[in-house]
Amino acid sequence: MRKIALLICVSIAIACGQNAGKKKNGFDYNRTKKEKTKSTQEKTTTPIDLNNTGIGPISDLSFPTSIDEVMVAKGAAAFKEKCTACHKVNAKLIGPAMTGIYERRHPAWVMNILLNPTEMLKEDPIAKALLKEYNNILMINQNLSEEEARAIAEYLRTL
């Protein structure tokens, strides 16, 4: 009986030792080389253009030095109601983040994209670049009045 047990132990040791040097087929959990993953989508950024006033009814707009708090309140309410489905204040969503918009765009351009998004997305080079950057998702025309658009523009100044 002892001989049989000894024979089994020796056979197991020999069998395990023979597989030690062989490479396993299939997936190996103990990878030593770290693989770099390539991005499947190129990151693009639209150019900053403070001279482009866009296409639409507003040819020029300059803000007064003081902020109109009543207009900001109206603009914040309108932004919450009509814009937050696609835009966040501090982060990209379906559309770009709104914080610092006037560091990237002329105020008249912002007003024109609010009032005339369909034509802007067809004709304006910055709007076309944004359309491409945001996966060709069109900005919906909210049919804002100039007063509503101006209130939203004033609100965007406070971000």
Q: What topology does this entry show?
A:
Blueprint (H helix, E strand, L loop, with lengths): L1 H18 L49 H14 L24 H9 L1 H7 L1 H9 L12 H12 L2
Helix pairs in contact: 2-6, 3-4, 3-6, 4-5
CATH superfamily of the domain at 69-157, called what? Cytochrome c-like domain
> Percent of residues in beta strands?
under 5%
Proportion of helical residues:
40-55%
For the largest beta-sheet, the strand count, sense and barrel status come to:
none
What is the architecture of the domain at 69-157 at the second tier of CATH?
Orthogonal Bundle
Number of helices: 6
Low-confidence stretches: 35-44
How far apart the termini lie comes to 86 Å
CATH classification class of the domain at 69-157 = Mainly Alpha
Question: Based on DSSP secondary structure assignment, what is the total number of beta strands?
Answer: 0
CATH topology of the domain at 69-157: Cytochrome Bc1 Complex, Chain D, domain 2
Following the backbone from N to C, one meets helices and strands in this order, namely: HHHHHH
- Rg measurement, Å: 31 Å
Structural class: mainly alpha
Q: Tell me, rounded to a whole number, the average pLDDT.
A: 83
Taken from the alpha-carbon principal axes, the silhouette is elongated
